[in-house]
Amino acid sequence: MDTHVPEERPSISGHLPSYRLGDRLRVNCSSGPAMPAPHLTWFINGEEVGPHLIRAYQLSVSEYLKSSVLQLVSEVRHNFFRDGIMKLKCTSAIGEKYWQSTETLIGQLGDPRRGTPSQLAGRAGQRYADQQMEVRHNFFRDGIMKLKCTSAIGEKYWQSTETLIGQLGDPRRGTPSQLAGRAGQRYADQQMEVTLQFTA
């Protein structure tokens, strides 16, 4: 059977920035058009959500393509939060040919120890920062770190994207504007061809 994978990650919609315990949570995960329709899965703080909290739908986009929608409906419970933050994750898969995921962070309201909504948002960002890898000296060459990410599905699809990041804190490296200029010059000197490959 022919396979057409979605062109984008699954999307999460319908949620508020923060909830109180006992509030009604109703949030959707939607896939892009595909053939066959992708299989969607919800996770809360890394734990898969049971079938009693979800409702699955399929929407016909064309004669052959369908989008999947997986709705998560539940009363907000205490165990949905860790340190005042709920991490929702949705994955979309078509067998072994396609897999993508999307995450969002939601704050907890109603507990004075948790702080204001803006503080919750800042804490969510800090948790991402705390989980990042420590920047090391060997990450840089001539004051520039080059990050590259590739995406592939067997021999049917391949694409890559890269970005350049400057090193601060070393006076030999120059000012931030000089670093940015140097990064831009390296892009001009070493432009990378992004390749998109499909096979029948």
Task: Describe the protein in words.
The structure is a single chain. Helix content is 14%, strand content 40%. It is mainly beta. The chain has two domains: 11-130, Immunoglobulins (Immunoglobulin-like, Sandwich), CATH 2.60.40.10; 137-189, no CATH class. The chain has a five-stranded mixed sheet, covered by helices on one side. It has a four-stranded antiparallel sheet with strand order 1-3-7-6, with no helix packed on it. A two-stranded antiparallel sheet has the order 10-11. A hairpin with a 2-residue loop joins strand 4 (39-44) and strand 5. The longest helix is centred in the middle third of the chain and has 14 residues, at 117-130. The chain is flat, with a radius of gyration of 21 Å.
Structural Rg? 21 Å
Which regions have little confidence, pLDDT < 50, spanning 5+ residues? 128-132, 186-200
How many E strands?
Answer: 11
Q: CATH architecture of the largest domain, please?
A: Sandwich
Number of helices: 2
What is the H-and-E element order? EEEEEEEEEHEEH
Number of domains: 2
Helix content: 10-25%
Strand order in the sheet with the most strands? 2-9-8-4-5
The geometry reads as flat
What's the end-to-end separation, in Å? 12 Å
- Overall residue-averaged pLDDT value: 78
CATH C-level of the largest domain: Mainly Beta
Question: Could you describe the largest sheet, including whether it forms a barrel?
Answer: 5 strands, mixed
CATH topology-level fold name of the largest domain: Immunoglobulin-like
> Mind telling me the CATH superfamily name of the largest domain?
Immunoglobulins
Structural class given helices, strands, pairing? mainly beta
